Amino acid sequence: MAVLIVFLILVVMIGFAVTLAVGWIVIVPAFLAVAFVAWLATAFVRGRAPSDMLRRTRRPELLGPGGPDDPERGRP
Fold first, then answer.
1. Which of 9, 11, 23, 44 could form a disulfide with 17 if both were Cys (CB 3.0 to 4.6 A apart)?
2. CA angle (6 as vertex; 24, 27 as ends), nearest 5
3. What are the structural domain ranges in the chain?
């Protein structure tokens, strides 16, 4: 049911894009909306909150103090 609703919204937005000749104004937000819905659906299927997916993002590991990736390398 949700997939049908998303598909219908996408079809309507593409129709507006073709009719109004401003495709990039309609298509880009449509793709972002579909990606957002897919992200929420993935979180729902896994039984987790969407914020849990963000919390599990790996943080970059620095090579050490003064290394090439140290943000405070040039500061006294």
1. 23
2. 5
3. 9-38
